[in-house]
Amino acid sequence: MSVVERRQSLAQEVTLLDLVDRVLNKGVVVTGDITLAVADVDLVYVGLRLLLASAATLQREAER
Amino acid sequence: MIHLYAFVSGSTALDAGLEARPFGSLAAVVGQGEPEPLEHGLVVERLLDCAEAVLPVRFGARFANDDELASAVAPMLETLEQRLAHVAGCVEVGVRMVARHEPVDSGDGAAYMRARLTEQHALDDVHRALAAEARDSVRADGEAGYLVSRDDVDAFASAVERLLESHPSLDLLCTGPWAPYSFAAAA
Fold it and tell me: Has this prediction a pTM greater than 0.95?
């Protein structure tokens, strides 16, 4: 069974948010030309949006 | 611009548009241009299917040329090799843990605090049980990451299922398997 198949069977609710959250917040930090904007939106702002979305998602789960 | 996606070890068949730049026993997977964060994430996830060990790089590492890449990577080489060995053969399984708040008499502060404490102990129990099944673990607020051997992912998911049944006050949600993002930075 490939990792892809496992991923499909294991992940019940993998959101795009999880992936983008990981990409932006985790991983090896290598100092290069740090990108300050994504599609003309500051990463700081994107980070804030992600935080708000994550908190809202948790809240929904808590209220379920 | 050279965009750095991940470090890998072992032979890797790369998608078109990606190149491997060897550094000692490992290789940096790079591509030209400036991908969006989502593209970066999808490339890293695909690497997980073909490389023995993958160390994802946080989005945003871009270099003007190979020399700049080399001078950024050289001082980290030893750490990178150690982290790659640590995650070799493993994937990261994410588990979101949320306690379902049982209604408590709103006038009874002590009962409220006891209920919160019970929830906290249940969450600690679950984390301890899952950490025992994993090679490594990290935990932050309502989310934990577990470094699990590729072969043990199904068993790990079953362990989460069992904990879900034995802890009816908790919601547990498995995500992944991911590339080991949470275990990429030096401990």
Answer: no
